């Protein structure tokens, strides 16, 4: 079968949500154009922005690095990778693969770790939490710490934007979870143009938010990226509600291709309208321990609260 776009090369990828069959060249071009259009539509990157890419070594990270390194000159983009400290996961050799590719693209990769920021690896934090009977999943510790470290490093290193590799699947699952929990505030903050609630937050952008996870996987295979495929040992502890939402969305997507794209676009329109009606969201208070933003009516930010519970604290003071 010939490619639906160019009509010349043989098709290698079936794209259910568009009904097209694409050759490798047209498929890669389609993904890049979608990322460019997403960045343009939401004005994600300005002419003076210096962007820090938060990368892990997985397929989505390679796609993010590949596309943004074409969009931006080398002096305006660099990357950060965080070693969590999970046995058998995020190994140094996987980071080195990412570093070599980043160097080929003219992008500097900076590597840090949870242990460098807290004095403990994630595995050590989880072990202490379990010994003390703290009913918090490893994913909760990891997610909060990663977000804190990314934002802190972005400020320390002079970035004006941080780009994460969240794909369409990630974004739709999060949006549905926010709706199911009735958390309209988080739903609004998920929108690319939501206002920052603190000057200490470096604005986060998600250029891959309209790219399916399977498309990121196919992009990486077609480009020959040797990305990390080892699954995190803590994945079985991920919230069951998200797992159920994911399963439900994939079932709907199989029955009606394009469902997830339509859902996210509808949520975006809803958020845009609500932001217009509501105006500016209230500013966040500061954590009394680290001085970073925290949730309303909370004395401590979630990260400091979790670290205090295991007898640790931030070893690197946010600046």
Automatic annotation (TrEMBL):
InterPro entries: Ncs6/Tuc1/Ctu1, Rossmann-like_a/b/a_fold, TilS/TtcA_N, tRNA_thiolation_TtcA_Ctu1, TtuA-like_LIM_N. One of its GO terms (biological process) is tRNA wobble position uridine thiolation. Zn(2+) 1 binds at residues 3, 6, 23, 26. The keyword Lyase does not apply. It comes from Fervidicoccus fontis. The keyword Cell wall biogenesis/degradation does not apply. Residues 2-28 form the 2-thiouridine synthetase TtuA-like N-terminal LIM domain. Keywords: Metal-binding, Transferase, Zinc. This is TIGR00269 family protein. Residues 51-210 form the tRNA(Ile)-lysidine/2-thiocytidine synthase N-terminal domain. One of its GO terms (cellular component) is cytosolic tRNA wobble base thiouridylase complex. One of its GO terms (molecular function) is tRNA binding. Zn(2+) 2 binds at residues 287, 290, 301, 304.
């Amino acid at each position: 079968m010939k490619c639906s776009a160019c009509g010349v090369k043989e098709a290698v990828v079936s794209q259910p949500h568009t009904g097209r069959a694409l050759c490798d060249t047209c498929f890669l071009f389609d993904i890049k154009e979608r990322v460019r259009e997403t960045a343009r539509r939401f004005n994600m990157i300005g002419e003076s922005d210096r962007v820090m890419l938060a990368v892990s070594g997985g397929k989505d990270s390679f796609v993010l690095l590949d596309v943004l390194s074409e969009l931006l000159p080398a002096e305006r983009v660099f990357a950060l990778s965080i070693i969590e400290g999970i046995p058998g996961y995020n190994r140094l050799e996987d980071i080195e693969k990412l570093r070599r590719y980043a160097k080929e693209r003219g992008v500097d990769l900076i590597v840090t770790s949870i242990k460098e920021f807290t004095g403990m690896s994630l595995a050590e934090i989880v072990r202490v939490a379990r010994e003390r009977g703290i009913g918090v999943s490893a994913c909760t510790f990891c997610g909060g710490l990663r977000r804190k470290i990314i934002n802190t490093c972005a400020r320390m290193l002079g970035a004006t934007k941080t780009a994460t590799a969240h794909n369409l699947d990630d974004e739709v699952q999060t949006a549905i979870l926010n709706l199911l929990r009735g958390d309209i505030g988080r739903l609004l903050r998920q929108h690319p143009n939501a206002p920052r609630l603190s000057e200490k937050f470096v604005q986060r952008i998600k250029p891959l938010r309209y790219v399916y996870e399977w498309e990121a996987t196919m992009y990486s295979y077609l480009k020959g990226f040797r990305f990390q495929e080892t699954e995190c040992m803590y994945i079985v502890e991920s919230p069951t509600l998200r797992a159920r939402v994911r399963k439900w969305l994939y079932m709907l997507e199989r029955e009606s291709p394009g469902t997830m794209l339509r859902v996210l676009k509808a949520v975006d329109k809803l958020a845009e309208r609500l932001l217009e009606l509501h105006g500016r969201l209230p500013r966040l208070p500061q954590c009394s321990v680290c001085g970073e933003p925290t949730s309303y009516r909370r004395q401590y930010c979630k990260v400091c609260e979790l670290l205090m519970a295991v007898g640790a604290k931030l070893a690197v003071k946010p600046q």
